[in-house]
Amino acid sequence: MSNGLGGFLVSASIVGAGLTGVWAWPHLQEGGFQSLAAQAASLYHGAEMRLRPAIAALQSPPDLPGPRLAGPAATAESLPPASLSAVQPLRTEPAAPVVSARCEAPEGNQDTAVAGDRVQLRIFESSVLAAAPAPEGAEAPATDIVFERLDLSGTYEVGATGAVSLPAIGHVDVAGHSLPCVEALVSRAAFERLRTQNTVSAAYAARPPVLVRGAVRSPGAHSYNPGLTVKRVLAQAGALDDRDPAAKVRLIALDARRSELDKARVGLTLERLRIEAALNDRDTLSQDDPAIRAAVTLLGRDRVASEGNALASEIQASRLRRAQSEATLADLAARIESARRQRDLAETQMTYHANRQEHQSEMLQSGLVTDSRLNDTAVRAMDAERILLEKEDLLFRLEAEHRAAAQDAELARVDRIKALTAELRQVSAALDAAGSELDTVLAELNLYENDGLRLAVTIERPGDGARVQTIAADADTLVRPGDLVTVSAEAAEGEDLADAVRSASPAIIRSALKE
């Protein structure tokens, strides 16, 4: 009996030691003996709290006859304090972010967001936890946990409507607002949609360039910097005025371009005259035309002769194709006429044999002809009918071939007219473009030569949707990203630039004859 009890106790102790090792080994690996001791103390404290009522009942038994084992005072001294500090719950109600009144409307001429900006937004969410238990008389501060919402943070582009599109938040209008207001607006939108306490950090990742055109040495796209003014834009692009050392170089370039455009316009006019003559089926160019004389003066007789040769070749080829088509159609018409006569003759023979066969059939009943003679007449009638069908088939085929040849000739003529018309349209478009550029060059030359050049700047600023705001700018006007800055030359003494352009816009040939 004792051996059985001893074996059970040994087995129980081995199992208990194994379970204790399984429980203690992870804590020993993570924090060492200190962590193991803290876990053991925590288990002891929990077990003591659960067993406290039973222990109190055992230490304070009901009054029984006999001597007391311990006094009430000794029992009370061994018990822990009755009051325990309660753990406060998490504070889950976030406060709404405050947006200043200036962020509720566009902020005017400040450095604000525009359509095309790429804004980098970092959104941080914060949670406030209750304070840990503190000694009596001391106030423990609350614990804040702040973490970045990587699912919401990122770089976003301001669309044409002036809004950025954020995941789980939606569209937030930021155009016309500075970066602090962008942060406040996005924070308010995140609070209204997600009901979380958050803070937002905003910065520009990329901004649209400023576009400059007109009387500058370097037109095109220029980078934007905060505080950029018209004066700085003109300094970057290299504005031209009457005091610029490059004005004389510009004047020489304009004069060369004017001469080049003049020659180009005369050449295009000569090509247009050739095409118009080809459309009217004329094989020569009129030498009395002022355009021809101007072309001889500017381009030389060889160029005029080459255009005349091209016209003659075009007309000759067109007339040859037309003559071939007419010959083909005439031959087919003659063959059709011959086939028609042969068909009429075959139809006459078939009618004769048919009547003869009918007459011999009547004579056969009277015994005036034999059956063999009637059969011979019937065979001849069938041959005549077969010949008539062949002649009609030949006539139909010749008529179809004649119609096809006529259609081919008409299509060739229409295709030639279409090709010449398309070429004339291209030449006219090029002529108009060269004329417009020549007018601009002549106006600028006129202003340079009058020594009265000054600059005027206008800014075209994109607004909501397709709306564009035009601003008459001065040197201190602030420029925003995406603005189109137009630098134009004006007369210094109040001369209207439009009048100067109109007075300096000669006709195509007249400008060439001035040389």
From TrEMBL:
InterPro entries: Poly_export. Keywords: Coiled coil. Residues 322-349, 417-451 form a coiled coil. Residues 58-82 are annotated as: Disordered. This is Soluble ligand binding domain-containing protein. The lineage of its organism: Bacteria, Pseudomonadati, Pseudomonadota, Alphaproteobacteria, Rhodobacterales.
